Amino acid sequence: MAFVSQAGPAYRVHSEITRSTNGRYGVFGLTNNIEVSRMKDSSASFSSSSYYSTKKSRILNLDGAGVGIQRGYRAIVAASPPTEDAVIATEPLTKEDLVKYLASGCKPKEKWRIGTEHEKFGFEFGTLRPMKYEQIAELLNSIAERFDWEKIMEHEYIIGLKQGQQSISLEPGGQFELSGAPLETLHQTCAEVNSHLYQLPEIAVDLHYLFYRMVKAVAEEMGIGFLGIGFQPKWGIKDIPVMPKGRYEIMKNYMPKVGTLGLDMMFRTCTVQVNLDFSSEADMIRKFRAGLALQPIATALFANSPFTEGKPNGYLSMRSQIWTDTDNNRAGMLPFVFDDSFGFEQYVDYALDVPMYFVYRKKKYIDCSGMSFRDFLVGKLPSLPGELPTLNDWENHLTTIFPEVRLKRYLEMRGADGGPWRRLCALPAFWVGILYDEVSLQNVLDITADWTAEERQMLRNKVPKTGLKTPFRDGLLEHVAQDVLKLAKDGLERRGYKESGFLNAVAEVVRTGVTPAEKLLEMYDGKWAQSVDPVFEELLY
């Protein structure tokens, strides 16, 4: 849920020349924090400090942000924190500008990359209690100082870290999220995922790999562990710390007005998602439809949140269930994506009608909850009368929309629970095998072509409880999953990178029809003697 995107290799402007350990230089000048320089070779040579490696810990403040592709009187902004001054809009934005912003994500196949984002719960060894903000701040500061990550600050609070194209951010309840660098192959992605357990700076390995090594090395010294699960298994909302981020305060106050489970979503869920590219509007549409149709299968395959406050909660994916009553104005299965008229413009129309959360101005989050971006476009936003939005405002608004598949300048597959490191490689493998192979993608579209909106919604509603055993037409969802997994495997094999082995973790789930959550429940009723405490060891990073 973090407001972080992966729009490509962009670097903030500093008044300095930095040199990375692999010998590449980036030259930066004093230009009001506008991004004017991009390093080359964005997906190659992911060594231990390939990006931004200097001897001091630099600080990023949220009152400045990067601006990317210049477009006359304004610019298309690269992914950045909220800012009030990224762009001076001398002319009003139009809907056409918003459509072009999405379309600017189109890229040729040779430039397609794989992005992953995954969240995890930090907890104290011994008490198993969630990390307090003070512990989180100590951990982030230690990582920044020891391993040369940039600090992201909101006022006096450290709220994240950044190094090159990857970042660490905090979810509302202190969940750690890594947004990894966009990578070319699953081998790079899996090396990222497996790396974050210990930091070994002298070894040239990929960035996710370094992250886990790095975080675990510091966290274990503090008596802190990380749990890979989709929903907080032991503690209630009252036990969860609130992060000092202005946007989350706005969301916390708004959520109870639009659903009954929004605070649970904010403070007690973790997910893993995959971000993938498209070549054209037509390619985006095909991938969007396939992603939505198959999202319940992904939810079932990775279902991993069966406990609430120490007991089984009746669901295999409580995280997925929570989204059904969080805020239905900004979540769900988006049936209009299957309309013949769908394209970038129709998604813009949808997003314009999703109520806003905030606008960031003068180092403050302005509460705009429930207000209309359409009104903002014409200077009639009640909280900021007469003020017009920038494209940075639009980008930030897009990140506050939470459907099962989300469109930004790439597509985000958002249906999976958080899980242990051994399964994180399987999710990008599943989606890459289907969406990055033309034959498999077309086969999926053929299989799902006659699925009705009602059937897709039925699967989305029932899978959190019944998983792969959900009845579908003349059989069970697991029978469809078997066919889909075969398509994913075939797609990976046609890519030619020997990546199909990354599907092994879900192949067993499909073969047996038993989800990860059901295995946890079996242990809970068996060797765990109806205690959830052992899950903190079972799913420890």
UniProtKB/TrEMBL annotation:
Keywords: ATP-binding, Chloroplast, Disulfide bond, Glutathione biosynthesis, Ligase, Nucleotide-binding, Plastid, Transit peptide. GO terms for molecular function: ATP binding; glutamate-cysteine ligase activity. Its EC number is 6.3.2.2. Its main location: plastid. GO terms for cellular component: chloroplast. It is found in: Plastid, Chloroplast. GO terms for biological process: glutathione biosynthetic process; oxoacid metabolic process. Pathway: Sulfur metabolism; glutathione biosynthesis; glutathione from L-cysteine and L-glutamate: step 1/2. It holds the Pfam family GCS2. Belongs to the carboxylate-amine ligase family. Glutamate--cysteine ligase type 2 subfamily. Homodimer or monomer when oxidized or reduced, respectively. This is Glutamate--cysteine ligase, chloroplastic. The lineage of its organism: Eukaryota, Viridiplantae, Streptophyta, Embryophyta, Tracheophyta.
